[in-house]
User: Fold these one by one.
Assistant:
Number 1:
Amino acid sequence: MKTFIGIDLGSTTTKAIVLDSDETVLGRGITNSRSNYKIAADVAREEAFLDARFFLFRKQLNDLPALDGKLDEFLGNFEQDFRLEQYLEQLNDLEGVCVASAADKRLGTDGPDTRALLADVFQRLNDEAPTLFEPGSRRQSDFFRDIAGSQYANASESFVQGSGISFEAMLNIYDRSIIEVENRFDNSADESKFMRALDRTCRRSTRFVNLLDKLRAPLKNILDIRFEETYVVGTGYGRATLPFSKEHIRSEILCHGLGAHIMHPKTATVLDIGGQDTKAIQVDPDGIVESFQMNDRCAAGCGRYLGYIADEMNLGLHELGPMAMQSKRKVRINSTCTVFAGAELRDRLSMGEKREDIVAGLHRAIILRAMSILSRSGGIRDQFTFTGGVAKNEAAVAVLKELAFENYGEVVMNVNPDSIYTGALGAATFAQRVVVH
Amino acid sequence: MNIAANQQPDVQKEDSMLLQKAMINANYEALASAHDEGKKISSTFVPGNLNELLMCFDLVRNLPEINALQAGMRKKSGGYIMEAERGGHSEDVCTYVKSDLGMMAKGQVGPSGKPLPTPDILLLSYTGCFTFMKWFELVRDQYDCETAMLHVPYQADGKVTKNMRKFVVAQLKEQVIPALERVSGIKFDIDRLRGYLAESAKAEDDLVWVLQSAKNRPTPIDAYFGGVYYCGPIFTAFRGTKDTTAYYRALRDEVAARLDLGLGPVTPDGAMDEERIRLVVEGPPNWTHFRDFWKMFYDEGAVVVASSYTKVGGVYDFGFRHDPEHPLETLADYCLGCYTNHSLPARVDMLTTYMDEYSADGFLVNSIKSCNSFSAGQLLMLREIEERTGKPAGFIETDLVDPRYFSPANVKNRLESYFQMIEQKKARGNARTAA
């Protein structure tokens, strides 16, 4: 099967999109960006191909009468079970690397006590894993490094009591090991993992237990599909480091412009707030970029700012938006300097301001900065599409909507649930057009 | 010089650059030994510089912003700027100023390693940059030397009136020339001035020819990165000298030879292979990463065919030449016509003309972080030029000589995006034409 791939290597996450010859999105993949860009690109691409198999599996099962009315539930469970299998496999790998890392005499953790402690920790992680991937469960992050890291820290904290091994030493072992594990590229699409997941899904629910035999063959059909990587286009801040030749690289400005146009064809203005840059792009009716502006040398007010605030408040990034939405009285904050943000936050707290009001003020501050970049690019025109990781933040969206109306009047504002993939979608579309057109 | 004769265009190009380098070094030598030889030194700035007049008084010419520029290219400005900041000058002050003040604080050793003696007179020809005035106030405060100031009226309405000219000429007669006579001890000789102005006009003809060679496709020159070398002698301490006339004749011959051979500009990495994008650029270049900056253009096949920066020391391509028949009036016209003295609408008109006459694919602004004087209104200009020409405009931000304000990854990212945007638009335009 011919496929066209777009990879967007951002400063925080790496995204991939797989298209077929008709520009249909088959799959989306995302992973955390890391020092090894090639691995990040490979992992995102592999994730997108996995997603494509789920997509095709759904298409194949659409007409299966046995799943009538329960297809969504089945596929939801199946995907969670597949993620669990993936997680357990990586956990096993991580345990081996942690044991090897602990044996390093320089760490002072090379005794049998540490090995025993690690065995206890990983036993708990394995025991807890199914709960994390239960149907409908919400995780703070879908990246292995984050999920395993949080579980490992919790387990280590309880097991180190009276063991003679410090919590810091356990974290040190983890930090030394996780990079090796996440940079070990593994072909996740192997058949046995899918089949184990199918087995798990069918066996744990009476609604699906009789379907196992009926579903094996369609799943095997999907797994037998060979994806041909017909053309790949890379984009994003790290695009120059992607192992692609120059003609396979497009700037993220062009990709975001085209991606936004594909998602919302009437897009005229695009605002993208990513990890370390904010881009305001004006596109013509075909998605061709007419002009753009970006933040200058300073990345103040970009996505990283919110990440830093979340860290300072000991919150997950996704918790910031809902907290800001609770605000009744926004605190005015002028500085969008990430370095000053912590000090500003503590200062406001010491003055008795409420956390939700401060967080709401911080959201307003970054959107005000984005408004300045937008006005430099030519303002907001109808329709206006907001993309990038920050577009997932409901408080940021609400402030932007308010300020867009105040400054430019009524405009249709699009925020796509898949907006984080906008750049990758543009890149994949360029890839498809190079070959098909 | 004939490049075609020996088929070594790169070497020939380097010859003119070497010639210029020798001129610059000789001037630094002259500055270093001026006081020992009983000569007096004047400091003055590039826009509106009265080089021919200063030469009439045997004054050795020192140009502080050229020293800062040279310090930037020789990787010395960063240290000078930090020295000036230690002395209380804020981060947002013009970095030319801070580089100069830092250099003074560090012992007045110029960029060539030779001492830069204290000037005997500061001649400020005020042509639109307010910072220059404050700069000389600071220098005067330090050296306690004589200052002469020429107030050049701003071309707010886009034209030079008789009264403006009269006002400048009166100041030359009543203020500037007497001050120069007093400091130098030499009586003003108008015929000597006429002689220098005649040399200037010859060099100006050749400079204009060289800059306008970029109207060809491919252009034999880069009118920004190469252009700053080409305008060097005429913008600084050398306009009006026979050496400068010879330099421009040699340069013109070199460029003519490249043009005959259909060759593109010579870059630090050799001759440019393919001209894919033609640009008009507004704003000065970054000096601390000059070659890296240039490489970001020629690696992508982008060449600058016209620039405003190569007009800051004099706008010659719309017909103005120094006129020996009207020596003081021509000096007035020269000062009044400097690019920095032009109003925003006049600058827009000029740049729009360049976009058209040089068949440019795009208009790029390099906005300078620490130069409010040049940067104010640039976005407005960008929009207007974009609208009038229908060609894509781009905007990047760097600094003159503060290495802390050049972020290679950021600049490269924006430039690549901009170049791809131009190519995408061109491709679509071509497809429509073909259809």
Note: Residues 1-70+208-264+419-437 of chain A form a domain with the Nucleotidyltransferase; domain 5 fold (CATH 3.30.420.40).
Number 2:
Amino acid sequence: MKKLAFGKYLLPIYAVLAFIYLLIPIVYTFIFSFNDYRRSNISWRGFTFDNWLSVCEAQGVCAAFGTSVSIGLISTFIATVLGTMIAIALVRYRFRFRSAISLLLFLPMATPELVLGAGLAAQFFNVGAEMGFGTIVIAHVMFCLSFVVVTVKARVASLDPALEEAGRDLYGSPSQVFWKITFPLLLPGIMAAALLSFALSFDDFIITYFNSGPTETFPKFVYTAAAKGLPGEANVIGMSVFFLAIAIVLFIQVRSSRKAKRLALVK
Amino acid sequence: MAIAAFGHAGSSKGTKNRASKGSAKVALLLLAPGLLYLAIFFIAPLLSLVATSLQTMDVSTGFPIYSYGFEVSNYVSVVTQYGPQIFRSFFYALVATLAALVISYPLAYFIGVKARRWPLLQGLMLTLVIAPFFISFLLRTFAWKQIFSSESWIVTTLQSIGILNPDQYLVGTPFMVIFGLTYNFIPFMTLPLYTTLERLDIRYLEAGADLYANPRRTFTKITLPLSMPGIVSGTLLTFIPIAGDYVNASGLFLGSTETSMLGNVVESKFLKSYEFPTAAALSVILMGAILLLVTLYVRKSGTDDLL
């Protein structure tokens, strides 16, 4: 009897321990964002808000962050447009070489980032392209594209074609039907894909390092700073991004659960 | 996400294809820009990687000069010279993937099966699972380095109770590298496992129990086989990035020269000593091994529809 009661709590206890394990480095980074560090942010020296109040004090950290954000925005935009077009074509049209196209879209996701990064760098080197902001954007669009296709495709597949048919029956032009019906219905999927794409781009280090030349992104800043000691301001930026991302995810979750409740009421 | 890529798609099969005149042209217009992009910036680089890996290197002038060639011997010398690093890459990836599977399975089972009655809690727990992704990959790896640094209380305690010798440290050991790799890629394992376990019909488990199967037998005969798609996509999604990682094993983070993996060699040959053919040959070896693995896996699990 006793053994059974214990077994009942085994899994929840395990889950709590697992979550603690997953959160340890995050909590650590958060605590050390308040450390009154001198040269390296390794041992605890006392509590301060300075790192939060003057984030840009540490040399180069804000510039690197800004570069990462702009690279993320530009590559997300390009990847989302190209990927959405492919997703619509894949679901709505029949054509030859379909499996070859699926394979072409699948392969970048199955290729280790190391190979993507080194391959692109070899290519840029062979054609004599100068490494920097532009080559990073090219690389990021390349690896985000397939993820956008996968994410948007699910949304296109769940779309009821009757809605667009109705639009055509009412003499809507193809572009009217697209912008007034298809696009708004696809928007949640496109937004999800754009968020994913931005997250992938913002956090990428492995591919970026090969194709960045002198351009400094935030992950690259952390990598180079790791040798001489990371400034506490880097923790501040990392944690701010973390809280923002959590807020977005929670917002989406709450909204979709509300929507589900409303739908249940209608039925 | 990527999970969908390895999971079984099939929902798209049901959609009616209403091909009309001129639709081929529209499809082409929609597909062409993106596919062209991948051809130029994904396929061509892979080919140029292969070409680079076969180049001949001439160091007689003191500065390495490369010319196009068909130097298959590059591969032989790379394998003999960097055998340990190649082995470590796949060995660490294997151990870390298995560790991630063992850690993730009960967690995914709890979220996907036991917590089914509380959708809000489920959502919250899923957010916690992916929380590590929201903090920079390098920052979280660096945090582990500092947590296990030689001055930390964890290491001094382990030393004082005799698990570690006084001159032994954790950072720089294979254990630490595998630990970091496991941690960093756990969400890639937990999410696909959760997706399949969430769909698991509990009535099957009840039927197993009704037929006098003990819990262990129910698990091995019902739960485990039914969650195979999740295990397949989870292992692929963790193994692939781990095998190519060079951050965890780097001396700046959790590793040392004794733990360096294939990726570390590629990084230093490519960006520091400019020995491009060596770096390219190693990348091609990694790519080949991964492709072989993916093909075998996909064949066996019958995931024909990749996207």
Note: The mean pLDDT of chain A is 89.
